[in-house]
Amino acid sequence: MIEIENITKVYRMGEVEVHALRGVSLQIDPGEWVAIMGPSGSGKSTLMHVIGCLDTPTSGVYRLDGVEVGGMNDNQLAAIRNRQIGFVFQTFNLLPRTSALKQVMLPMQYYRDGQRVPLAERTRRAQAALEMVGLGDRMDHQPTELSGGEQQRVAIARALVNDPAIIMADEPTGNLDSTSGDEVMDVLRRLHEERGITVVMVTHDEEIGEQAERIVRLRDGQIVGEKGISRSRET
């Protein structure tokens, strides 16, 4: 599903060049759960942004489902994100004074194939997504009326509502206590196991990373090791 070959990413800050990725090559199969780990400044968030089509590489090849996406323009990348990828961020990114139901309906506001999803269908799909993450009784609640774990589950429901093949989770438990973090990880695990969704997760937490099927470790913009968990593969 995800094929990255010799990807580099260079940020220019005035006359200074920052090499965030230095020749990264990686393959992720459909239905895999991969954790990307590394210290601060290792390039893990940059790699996630490239995989999630939030940023483009400076050089190298990135194929998503066999399609080269490295040279696409912003509109093309936005279309891919809307169709194929759901995002879950550490900071939840929920709108204030907006119900959980309306938060989850937001991604369906955009046109797909020249058509907009009818309101009744948007409502039905948002309700189903919230029920899937265990918030069927909290649909009318605003963020201030929800716990941190519940807010993150709203964010997961929002990521799911367009039926993506890939969930990109950036430190999904970083702002949560251990109990709420366990609840969020249980939701991700169910989605992965029951729906076969590919999960790519950035985390600095070893205990969280160990719940993935594979850990990819970065340092100084390069892959320095991989460890297979459930498949007993280690390199």
Instruction: Write down how many β-strands occur, each being a DSSP E stretch of 2 or more residues.
Output: 10
pLDDT averaged over residues: 89
Q: How far apart are the first and last residues' alpha carbons, in Å?
A: 21 Å
What summary fits the major beta sheet? 6 strands, mixed
Strand content: 25-35%
Strand order of the largest sheet: 6-7-8-3-9-10
Helical fraction equals 25-40%
Quaternary organisation = single chain
* Dominant shape: globular
Question: Total number of helical segments?
Answer: 7
- Helix/strand-derived category reads alpha/beta
Q: Write down the secondary-structure element order.
A: EEEHEEHEHHHEHEHEE
Radius of gyration: 18 Å
Low-confidence stretches: 230-235
Q: Could you describe the 3D structure shown?
A:
The chain has about 240 residues and is of the alpha/beta class. Helices cover about 30% and strands about 30% of the residues. It is built from 7 helices and 10 strands. The strands form 2 sheets. The protein has a 6-stranded mixed beta sheet. Helix 4 crosses helix 5. The C terminus is likely disordered.
